[in-house]
């Protein structure tokens, strides 16, 4: 996995977790949903890069 892509995926996952936690703390459903979406986006990016790595070798 390219280091840049891996870092970006982790950043999206972390950002999403923070948003979700903040949304829960203040009771904001929209913020929680945005957080879950960001985490899913990061997960998808990570899975895509792992798949690319698998087919490289």
Topology:
Blueprint: H1 3-26, H2 29-56
Structure description:
It is built from 2 helices and no strands. The mean pLDDT is 91. It is elongated. It has 57 residues and is mainly α.
Tags for this model:
57 residues; mainly alpha; 91% helix
Low-confidence region ranges: none
Beta percentage is under 5%
Nearest-integer average pLDDT: 91
Tertiary shape: elongated
- Percent range of helical residues: over 70%
| Contiguous helical run count | 2
Query: What structural category characterises the helix and strand content?
Result: mainly alpha
Work out the number of β strands: 0
Largest sheet: none
Order of helices and strands: HH
Distance between the termini: 12 Å
Whole-angstrom Rg: 13 Å
Give a quick precis of the structure.
The protein is mostly helical. 91% of the residues lie in helices and 0% in strands.
């Amino acid at each position: 996995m390219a280091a840049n892509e891996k870092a970006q995926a982790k950043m999206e996952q972390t950002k999403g977790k923070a948003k979700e936690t903040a949304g829960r703390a203040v009771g904001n459903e929209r913020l929680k949903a945005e957080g879950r979406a960001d985490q899913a986006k990061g997960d998808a990016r990570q899975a895509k890069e792992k798949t690319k790595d698998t087919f490289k070798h």
